[in-house]
Amino acid sequence: MTEIHLSDEDRDFIEEQVKAGIYKDVDEVVAAGLRLLGSKEGKLVELQRLIQEGIDDVEAGRVHHYASGEDLLNDIKRMSAERKHKTGTGH
């Protein structure tokens, strides 16, 4: 098995999680941490993709200029209402 070295603070945290009954043992705590890290990494990759998509849209001229923040807000509300009407979830 691979040996890992933890700070006293990390070791105390893991022990607290096990003692509190949140996890069965140290392996479960580490596995949960790794799952969380993997999930965050996946979200980061998706965020980077969406940012690049936005940059690509701007560079391609696929943008809309608003005269004011109020105009933008009104457009967002209009699009939301259209989406709710289209999906039948308007409440």
Automatic annotation (TrEMBL):
Pfam families: ParD_antitoxin. NCBIfam families: antidote_CC2985. This is Type II toxin-antitoxin system ParD family antitoxin. It comes from Neorhizobium galegae.
